[in-house]
Design brief:
homotetramer, alpha/beta, Aminopeptidase, five-stranded mixed β-sheet, 5 helices, 7 strands, 31% helix, globular
Chain lengths: 206, 206, 206, 206
């Protein structure tokens, strides 16, 4: 099974992005039955998804697993749905890395309002909590680049009638990112890597 | 420098207590210039402090560093003050491990209302955040066993005119403890152990 | 303009539901240009939406505005989207008022994954914050009865090619509901009623 | 019984302070058996307490009840203890209204570390929750102007061996203050005024 894992470059006030570190680490893992490919995406509306689609066409994966950091969350959270909106607020309040700040605009004119991710989110969540890692299905990927990546990837797969499974999983900030913001929950990169290995195994089995 | 580190047994609905694991791990550390001694305290009002005092008298430490878990906190939090009250609410709502649930009672009749910890809390907090671990001085150790341990230890030291430095540091829940409560922030035992080593080094230098 | 406002009966451990009080109060309001009709819905999956549809057919409103309480939120939150899922967790962990606890099931087999509400959510949010009431568009109505009501109502309107506008707005708990849970944010019924009047005026103008 | 109620002027980024509005409103209340006097204090370290002491000497109250706003809290919170420290962080991160930003300094050299408030906090909390207003005893008034006012007032009373009862109660932000920060819990001025009347009645009876 070929799995394409995407992470993001840093954004806003962040100097690093744990998902970039995670995909670089994952690129070297040997897991039986899984051919791991990775890509780091730009934090720019629409370009994030366009870059991922290029890679999908080059790699031809069975599964696309996108990772993003959700500063403020304490658990690993597989996303249930991508929605057809781009809007900057909260984490995205500085706009994307090109400086654009869309205000409640659609991502794709005439696209479906929302599309469900097709990863085995329930099985992933159960396996994570069983292995001692806090996890929960999330009902909103927000309206920033993470949602954009998920929504457009799901549209891409659906339009082509493709069998590719696709989804998005948010991870918490790392301790290093949040050492001066003591109320922000964190998860160390070691635990995040352990979570990612568990997730890959569940995807392989489902 | 001889440092006596205390942790606690589990309490309430918790099946384990990371501070028990931490002190057991610390008992085997070799850190230059520090003679580490450890003790695991009962989660029972008054007995917690009595047990620690026995150990202080047996060990004759230069510093007493007590550790406790604060479920819900995301950072390592050195406590500023112990106060003369015992009261069960929040985490302690099930009462202590003997089943007692005091209601806003003093710990020591006629004792001072509050006593400041004498560890170098500012230096500890700065060293932790500099090393990428979220930390902040806390202004309240609550009214449960942690505060009890801190308050009575500070009284004990003060009454004897002793030169012993004493304080209390809260750590977050571990991922394993909170895997089914995804809104509870966590810190892995690895990061907690790294934090404890940093704390010990700061105490040695100050 | 005829506006049908729905509220809910109590659920879970709640003894009252502020949205029931709100719609009863609103039934007596005289607001120029608005014919207010109200209904209180059962907190039972599927029945909530069926009961609302009966009322829509009887009343033939121009707008359907559903209200629900979101214990834990501090602001008035118009919902962006309803999704095709029923799942009990969080507030809904006791199941619905019939005792049913669906586990990540669709509401309508073959229905669209998500549908956007058609109320002027941006204008509502701006008018509320301008009048001193905390408000924000929410990206998730959850997976309990509130989302069920929103999703099925949007499906109903879409299937019929109807011009009815429909949406859902969550309000915080009231102080009376949360007096013994001091960490739960609240908004008094007076402020909620002021918010509802502002919302109705915005709907009339848009 | 003569009760001196203090509020504060605005501070930091706040344009108004609900405790100023509350004491101005309370100045006109007629409550049997209570002679209400009020004062609005400057948000400047040490001056806050000095101004309150002037008023205590002029008014000769039986009780001093200080009010402050705690942005982020959702309940009315009588404070248990004032502590001998001044330190700017969190709400006070902009420094006081004179621009001073003390770093973990004592308020009074050689003063006791902490002093308990002498208001009937338990009875106040119970009466508030019984009347449908979220309330809880707080174990920390922070290290900003509120704590300063409480600590120095308690020192003043103790040094003089006075029979004056003194304490501090924090109230939440109002909806108007937080309309653009939707995650900040609020309590309307109406509910705060109802709370204050309840508090005054409890003080009269205890």
């Amino acid at each position: 099974m070929k799995i394409l894992i995407s992470g993001f470059e840093p954004f806003g006030k962040l100097e690093s992005n744990p998902t970039e570190a995670l995909v670089k680490e994952a690129a070297d893992w040997k897991i039986e039955g899984i051919d791991i490919r990775t890509v780091v995406l730009p934090v720019v509306y629409r370009e994030c998804a366009a870059r991922l689609q290029e890679e999908i066409e080059a790699v031809k994966p069975d599964v696309v697993l996108s990772l993003g950091v959700a500063v403020g969350r304490s658990a690993v959270t597989p996303e249930r749905i991508g929605i057809n909106v781009q809007h900057t607020e909260g984490e995205g309040k500085f706009g994307d890395n090109s400086g654009r700040k869309p205000d409640n605009e659609p991502l794709i004119e005439g696209g479906p309002d929302g599309l469900f991710a097709t990863l085995p989110n329930r099985e992933i969540t159960r396996a994570l909590t069983d292995s001692g890692i806090p996890a929960q299905i999330s009902n909103s990927a927000g309206t920033y680049i993470c949602n954009n990546t998920l929504y457009e990837t799901l549209c891409y797969v659906r339009e082509r009638g493709s069998q590719i499974k696709a989804g998005f999983i948010h991870v918490p900030a790392t301790p290093e990112m949040a050492s001066h913001t003591p109320h922000v929950p964190t998860m160390s990169l070691d635990v995040q890597a352990k979570a990612l290995k568990t997730i890959l195994t569940v995807i392989r089995e489902n």
